[in-house]
Amino acid sequence: MTRDEAALVEPIARDAIADRVLAWTAINSGTANLAGLAETAALLADAFAVLPGALTLEEPQPVETVTAAGKLAPVAHGRHLVLRVRPEAERRVLLTGHMDTVYAADHPFQASTWLDADRLNGPGAADMKGGLALMLAGLVAFEAGRPTLGYDVLINSDEETGSAASAPLIAELARGKIAALTYEPALPGGGMARARPGSGNFAAVVTGRAAHAGRNPEDGRNAVVAAGDLALRLHRARHPALRINPAKIDGGGPSNSVPALAVLRVNLRPHGPAEAAEAQALLDRLVAEVACDHDVTIALHGHFGRPPKPIDAGAERLFALVSRAAADLGESLAWHDTGGVCDGNNIAACGVPVLDTMGARGDFIHSPQEYCDMASLVPRARLTALVLHRLDRGDGL
Predict the structure, then answer these.
(1) What does the pLDDT read at residue 199?
(2) Which helix (H) or strand (E) holds 209?
(3) Residue ranges per domain, the chain?
(4) How far apart are the C-alpha atoms of 274 and 279, rounded to whole Å?
(5) Which of 156, 199, 221, 246 is the most buried if burial means most Cβ atoms within 10 Å?
């Protein structure tokens, strides 16, 4: 590192970042908890207001879901926080994170607890309130160097459920950016994510025909059996490059009645674009076959909201820049492909190089055992500041 770079990252301190993590994890911000999301968004807006630029809260895109009764119903979401800094700059980057967690307002996991001097067990501590806090600290340090690089910050409210209410905003903000950094937590062991599969969530609404289970069952068309058959066929069709998870069947009723309605929910994760096309064709074919074999109708809802994220030359250059910066800070990064998905998938689909595990280290995310390694906050914040500084001077990209 140069002397100026060392002076840029040196002021970053743990206490201020840790205080924000503790404050933010104390508020439940499950994706469906609109009041908690509003409270969290207000705290984030106050914190990020120390940065230059225009800060707004953007309305969510309308989203519908399929109910257990097979009907489409609207789903309410919280607003998304956007900060635009130096929009006139020739070179601009995107930084993203999310304020929502997987823990509902009535989930028993609501409070943070210190496991030891460095590990904070708390809802969203690693995923990703720790990441948001260190992102802010890195940006504050970066601004002290009087940069010319422009950037947008997006903190959405619906990442944990697929970002359907923020996907258009992600695409809008990604447009024209030279690179993007997303603050998902590091992989277990501290590794950084490279390629990711795509992900699609689908609901198959099966409509059969009711009948008496004892008097005239042959006149019925059992929707639950048809949904189960579709689930089994999808399960058997999976392979290493196309993971398929039939996750839930809603339907049925009294045991003396042939059920006329069922809803099968399934997640598909294609490795790449070819497998994504294969997955859609497979869904269409199996839905048609099961509908014919069981004499039922099946309406398929859903789409691939997360496109596969392969690694191209631009991403490799960004990864190399971050690796060099980490090495200069005394940290060696390990890189791995992963089966998870995130907003990095959507950003990469816009043609923007993205590194999407810039957040805190920790483990057991999406469980009551989730913890954030608080010792990682300062190193990761310094990495943010140094990477942005080198992007500002044109290194690598």
Answers:
(1) 98
(2) none
(3) 3-196+309-392, 200-305
(4) 9
(5) 156
